[in-house]
Design goal:
Two copies of one chain form a homodimer. With about 300 residues, the first copy, chain A, is α+β, with helices and mostly antiparallel strands. Chain A has two domains: about 170 residues, Ribosomal Protein S5, domain 2 (2-Layer Sandwich), CATH 3.30.230.10; about 130 residues, 2-Layer Sandwich (Alpha-Beta Plaits), CATH 3.30.70.890. In chain A, strands 1, 2, 3, 4, 5, 6 and 12 form a seven-stranded mixed sheet that branches. In chain A, strands 9-10-7-11 form a four-stranded antiparallel sheet, with helices on both faces. Chain A is globular, with a radius of gyration of 19 Å. The interface between A and B is large, with 38 and 38 residues. Strand 8 of chain A pairs antiparallel with strand 8 of chain B.
Chain lengths: ~300, ~300
């Protein structure tokens, strides 16, 4: 094997109740990457299509993540990376994470898989740190593990893989406005009312239980966020209308994807997910803001190989 | 059936990470109650052994809970209650809850079981409200459901039953000092740092996952509380020493049971639970404070019938 082409999926972090902790993996939206073994040691980025991103590995999230795993493994070969971005940077569905995760995942294949998924998340986080200024794993983890993940802690890193109810779909709208992760972070309260925090951890607990028991009603009941959403939703034009339309069309729940501006919903079955998509197109098409809408099954596998050479 | 004798178990609320939300049911410590059908309508408490408690139903937690279910069902018979307290009031292992839960559970048997477990918790909470000034369900729920429970919300009440890993035991020490629930409540912070709250909900999520997957290591890793324990542990003499001794003897985790003063630990297997018991006896026997130590398997069934007449 000298070349591997992969699909590195978009991901949704936070998932309403699980701020900084929960995430899930999408299936119909993601970047493609070609990773090639080279005789010359080191990491090179040779092609970037679909976004204006730096080619210097030290300034590119995929490059930084690739350097982290290559430096740890120190193999007698080098790596060339081509990135075909389909996930727009700044969309809130894990664009930087997809590049970072894809690079480390593919390099691990070339190395003979010495690292487990959690260790790969650790390398991927190095790329995320470049993008957002802080190491976080709530997009990298679902990309590499697939399905739903819970980042229990960062130091030392501990990722818990959660089950994926088989009928679960996501519908997502990406309004093409820019929200910086740093800005979305700075408007968060430093302190929260104990009462609200209790509600939130009750919801995280019941959400996790619902995933194990395929309890869509409980899952729906758990998808609430009174802590982060009230602040961040103000940065997203027409947020309340979109959320209302999603719920009215039958979504189990809806919330901000990552730090926005994308808005996600979870739905039972593809038919409802498509109805939700139609409803939000109706809401957004009159706003004058460019947008994309995606319908995706939850991707229980994560990153996948497209072909090998 | 004219008479039913039941065992109504002690329970542990909060369980470190799950303040106000998680609870579990014990097996070797609990009250006994005899509930008798009477021709005369209404609720009477005819005998209380083991504690000084009021006989007027309106002033007794079992009486208040019994009145709640009897008023809702309005049967053409009445109820007589005998209470044999083995759980000391104010111990922090759900003494009032055991009386309230036992009464409604037994009355439901006489009524022909018209109410499901969650509805019984609702009636039991009325008794709890008399004891603590607020309706809460984190002891009533594990008593009635058995095993581990998560009180997702109080209004409307929603209880999630969680699985019970089969090798799980609890070791508990009850130092015989008095802590009022109201006092234990008043020292809590009204606000908590967002960062700490995130850690707490990550732990609740991973704790719930660990119960589903019998992952004792993850369960151990999740049993932390940086929000309530630092405040309430000050009210419990020698708390830190006891906790340290529990962990050193092999406990998976340890924390305050309910609002204290009891301290609980969870252990994998009876042998370790007994070692933990020995270790805490060593710590406490030199303090001059009276205490009881209990070792119990987690009781997956909850309240049980001792005999019927």
């Amino acid at each position: 094997m000298n070349e591997i082409k992969i699909f590195s999926p978009a991901t949704v972090a936070n998932v309403s109740c699980g701020f900084d902790v929960l995430g899930f993996c999408l299936d119909t939206i993601g970047d493609e990457m070609v990773i090639r073994k080279t005789a010359e040691k080191g990491v090179k980025i040779t092609k970037i299509v679909g976004a204006e991103l730096p080619y210097e590995p030290e300034k590119n999230v995929a490059g930084v993540a690739a350097l982290a795993i290559m430096n740890a493994a120190n193999p007698d070969f080098g790596i060339e990376i081509e990135i075909y971005k389909n996930i727009k940077p700044g969309s809130g569905v894990g664009s930087s994470s997809a590049s970072a995760s894809g690079a480390v995942w593919a390099i691990n294949e070339f190395l003979g898989k010495p690292y487990n998924k959690q260790e790969l998340v650790g390398f991927g986080m190095k790329g995320e740190a470049l993008a957002s200024g802080a190491e976080h794993a709530d997009n990298v983890a679902p990309g590499i593990f697939g399905g739903f993940t819970l980042v229990k802690q960062l130091n030392p890193l501990k990722v818990v893989q959660l089950p994926t109810p088989s009928e679960l779909y996501a519908t997502i709208i990406h309004p093409q406005i820019e929200i910086k992760t740093s800005e979305a972070r700075s408007i968060l309260p430093k302190e929260v009312a104990l009462k609200q925090a209790i509600n939130q951890w009750a919801n995280v607990g019941s959400f996790v239980s619902a995933l194990y028991t395929d309890d869509y009603e409980l899952l729906s009941d758990s998808l609430h966020d009174t802590i982060v959403e009230p602040h961040r939703s103000k940065l997203i034009p027409h947020y309340d209308k979109v959320k209302e339309a999603m719920l009215n069309a039958g979504a189990l729940g809806a919330g901000i994807s990552g730090s926005g501006p994308s808005i996600f919903s979870l739905c039972k079955g593809e038919a409802i997910a498509k109805k939700v998509a139609e409803a939000i197109v109706e809401v957004y098409k009159t706003t004058g803001i460019e947008f994309d809408v995606y319908v995706s099954k939850i991707n229980a596998k994560g990153i996948r190989i497209i072909n090998l050479k």
